[in-house]
Write a structure and sequence with these properties.
By secondary structure, this protein is of the alpha/beta class. The chain folds into 4 domains: 36-137, Tumour Suppressor Smad4; 146-317, Rossmann fold; 324-396, Helicase, Ruva Protein, domain 3, CATH 1.10.8; 407-455. 33% of the residues lie in helices and 22% in strands. It is built from 15 helices and 23 strands. A 6-stranded mixed β-sheet has the order 1-10-7-6-4-5, with no helix packed on it. Helix 1 crosses helix 2 and helix 8 crosses helix 11 (366-380). The relative contact order is 0.09. Bound molecules: adenosine-5'-triphosphate (ATP). Adenosine-5'-triphosphate binds at residues 149-152, 178, 180-186, 249, 291, 331, 334, 367-368, 371, 432, 459. Residues 23-35 have a biased composition (Low complexity). Residues 61-110 form the FHA domain. Keywords: ATP-binding, DNA-binding, Nucleotide-binding, Transcription, Transcription regulation.
Length: 459
Amino acid sequence: MSHTERPQGAGRPAEGPDSVQQTRPTGTGRPGTSGAVRRFRFTVLEGPQPGQSKDSNADTFSIGSHGLNDFVIEEPTVSRFHCEVKVDHDGARLRDLDSRNGTVLDGVHVRDAYLRGGSILRLGRVSVRFDFSPETNRLLISDRTTFGELVGSSPVTRASFALMERAAASDATVLLEGETGTGKSRAAFAIHQASARASGPFLTVDCGAIPGNLLESELFGHEKGSFTGAIQRRVGAFEEADGGTIFLDEIGELPAELQPKLLRVLENKEIRRLGANGYQPVNVRVIAATHRDLRAEVNAARFRSDLFFRLAVVRIIIPALRERPEDIPLIAERILMAFGAGSEQLAALSTPEFIAQLQHAAWPGNVRELRNHLERCLVFQDAMPPDAEEVSAQAVLRSLVDPKQPYAEARRRALEVFEREYLDALLKLHGGKVSQAATAADMDRVYLYRLLRRHRLRT
Ligand SMILES: Nc1ncnc2c1ncn2[C@@H]1O[C@H](COP(=O)(O)OP(=O)(O)OP(=O)(O)O)[C@@H](O)[C@H]1O
């Protein structure tokens, strides 16, 4: 059985000893503040080291047999990344990370549930007890509300900015995790620009968009004649990015046969072109991103555990837009300015009512979807509520037809809107995978890429 459980009375901090007193960081408007979240502890009841306990030191805490967990329990029935607890508005939320033997909470198999103080978890043959402690953990929150192109004032966003600032100050490999459209590629570029490598190149390789057999040559290059069609020598992205940063987007899609090759680059800082005899050194910083939880991929043996270890030196999670509605006024203003909205349009699209509507929408496509919606509002010159996307096709067509415009111009605008809607829906249907979308739509992949870039649906 799998379900989501909430403790009674969750939703607002209760006063009992087992409730979360403060799940939101404090002092959110003040510069340089750090937030506080309630601390908790896990104690092993049955397992390899009974009595051993571990306190949380941030707002999330993971348990598993892999060395990157907060509580490492080395026992064969415990998965590498077994489960995670995150303190949120409602309490301490437990998530099973697709573990092999599952997570059993007080006798019930759960995937997602809220914990009470004294809850007993069974992970394979190990059992642990969860308790809240009276102390709090302080979280580091940036005093900035912008980082590169990204803006946001919510504590979760500013906590991610704090990590991005730290990442920029170092040369460590970074793993960015977040749903599609949350701003991962902008974050990667902003980290590069704020780093000592800013004057060097920044190269993006979308590991999900390039067929596996071409990806190796795209990344590492090839020698002339190394395979059929290799009519001349080609420099790969790692060599091209020398002295700068390479952004490996959708790293979760990296084919199994390329994973040890990337691992070697990260470990030894050297690459070998396809068909070459020897290795050559490269000086490149790697930032990777994924919309998946790579820990579940590691559990399922689809992603190498040692590669995850090397990539996640700094792991930054960019939350979904629905988890940070406080960011919406700033983000909307930034987007409207970028579209060149005039002061009247800005005023019409920043009324408290309209902003509240935006803040209550689910935005499965995150900031990208918000941007598309705002663009439509500008085109239609109307502060449409987000669910107005459902308006009938006829109403949309009617609003596009403006007989005061020359025919050619009216047609161009209508086509423009159609194209964007089509591409947006196509990408959503195929989970953002461009190659797959191109095949399904019977389009050339390179042409689809060009269209996506024109509509700013891809960078
Ligand atoms: N915090 C933010 N402030 C302003 N704009 C943002 C923010 N986050 C995202 N955006 C905008 O949203 C759009 C999508 O961002 P981006 O392409 O970086 O997302 P992504 O997570 O890399 O998406 P995908 O996984 O689909 O590649 C961009 O236009 C970006 O500028």
